[in-house]
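2024-03-11 09:14:02 INFO worker-7 job=invfold-0412 stage=load source=structure_tokens
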């Protein structure tokens, strides 16, 4: 039950360390059957992080060339040209992305109101997030988390991406911002948002990127959310949110075993045939 795929891959076109070619080579070394690229979609701000319009066009063109070349050679992996799309991407651009790309990961990183001109991302600067909690949420980290979950759940419900991105990203700096992720209020907000998200999407990613980068020992989302998702008959896919080709399958073996122990019967991977998804039985 090796998981030979990854649908969440970044490159030097956004904030990744590895090129498209390096990521493909890593997938080939690992024997992957499929590989999906998910650069941060152009969103109109925070340019150090997302692609510029020119970069996104070049990213798309290069990936379509690589995709065609691998298909023509009958070589693995089957490539998918996708995007990780934030809730704040303008609507017209969202419609264009849906038409131009093979799949979309729906992720929420930012709050919709900048703080003195700075966009606050829950996975960005912990200092800025603390300031946001003080100034926009009266010092209440739970209120910030509840607002985050409301945004993310509603975004997925309405936008209907193919994959739900790192559902509980808001816990990334829990220790530093004084957020108790065992508090009943925290869990209630997260579970309410997950139920909403379930109405817009079948596939939740189990994302090991936070382990690879040393922020946590458990993937996103936390076990209580995975329990709830399983009970809602949702599907899961395993991803490494890969920014560095050396970490393409980081913690995949342990996470597959964890999902099996948690009662999941299968994990979806990007298809090696004509369908978007194949199932790997646990
Ligand atoms: Zn992300
Ligand atoms: Zn990502």
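2024-03-11 09:14:09 INFO worker-7 stage=emit residues=282
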């Amino acid at each position: 039950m090796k998981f030979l795929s990854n649908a969440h891959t970044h490159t030097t076109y956004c904030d990744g360390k590895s090129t498209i070619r390096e990521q493909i080579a890593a997938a080939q070394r690992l024997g992957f059957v499929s590989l999906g690229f998910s650069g941060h979609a152009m969103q109109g701000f925070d340019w150090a992080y997302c692609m510029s319009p020119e970069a996104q066009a070049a990213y798309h063109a290069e990936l379509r060339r690589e995709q065609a070349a691998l298909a023509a050679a009958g070589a693995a992996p089957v490539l998918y040209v996708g995007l990780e799309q934030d809730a704040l991407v303008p609507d017209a651009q969202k419609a264009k992305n849906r038409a131009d790309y093979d799949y979309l990961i729906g992720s929420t990183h930012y709050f919709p109101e900048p703080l003195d001109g700075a966009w606050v991302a829950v996975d960005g600067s912990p200092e800025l997030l603390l300031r946001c909690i003080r100034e926009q949420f009266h010092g209440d980290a739970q209120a910030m988390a509840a607002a985050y979950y409301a945004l993310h759940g509603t975004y997925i419900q309405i936008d209907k991406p193919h994959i739900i991105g790192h559902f509980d990203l808001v816990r990334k700096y829990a220790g530093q911002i004084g957020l108790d992720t065992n508090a009943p209020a925290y869990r209630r907000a997260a579970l309410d948002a997950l139920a909403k998200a379930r109405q817009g999407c079948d596939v939740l990613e189990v994302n090991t990127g936070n382990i690879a980068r040393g922020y946590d020992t458990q993937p996103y989302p936390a076990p209580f959310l995975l329990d709830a998702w399983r009970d809602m008959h949702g599907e899961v896919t395993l991803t490494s949110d890969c920014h560095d080709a050396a970490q393409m399958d980081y913690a995949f073996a342990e996470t597959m075993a964890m999902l099996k122990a948690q009662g999941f019967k299968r994990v979806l991977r990007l298809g090696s045939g004509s369908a978007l998804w194949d199932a790997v039985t646990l």
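2024-03-11 09:14:09 INFO worker-7 stage=report msg="The mean pLDDT is 97."
2024-03-11 09:14:10 INFO worker-7 job finished
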